């Protein structure tokens, strides 16, 4: 069926752009700490990291609506298309907020930031609760979907942890761009990225687990 094929393609593209974008940002971030790279090129690398990172940020938001639509189309769940449509609309609004924040990062909007953070925590709580409810038989949820829900919740949660870890990065980049205490800024950038990289790898692992169970679809 063409509709199912299109939904499958969209969901696969979410995985591709999420993991691929994360890998690209991860690689580009190495140039922020290379001693033989000029300050201007480091700032260019920082801009590239921020732009490339919008691919996984976009994919994170699209993972649930494309996944739910695909699961409904294949009969894995029966939540109804009206509910799926609501999730799609909320996700579209969330995606608009995410891009608005990215394009206007020079003038942050606290209200949009709070909405974005609230949606992320709601997603973590909602997916985790649904997975637990499925595991104890309160709702009809296939095992592989419960695992994918937990994996997605884990990815969102790790993303929130990474944001906290990266908090010192942005003032350090500002100091580096302004020509302040370059040595201190470089040290802060290096230490911050070292702490964040293992956390990013946790997200990669969770993505691979979600992809495996999406292909395997065991009904344990």
Descriptive tags:
220 residues; mainly alpha; elongated
Concise synopsis of the structure shown:
With 220 residues, the protein is mostly helical. It contains 8 helices and no strands. The mean pLDDT is 93.
| Count of distinct strands | 0
Number of helices: 8
Radius of gyration, rounded?
19 Å
Gross geometry: elongated
Largest sheet: none
Mean pLDDT: 93
Q: Any overview of this molecule?
A:
By secondary structure, the protein is an all-alpha fold. Helices cover 81% and strands 0% of the residues. Helix 1 packs antiparallel against helix 3. It is elongated.
Summarize the helices and strands and which ones pair or pack.
Layout: H1 2-29, H2 39-52, H3 54-73, H4 81-103, H5 110-135, H6 143-165, H7 169-178, H8 182-216
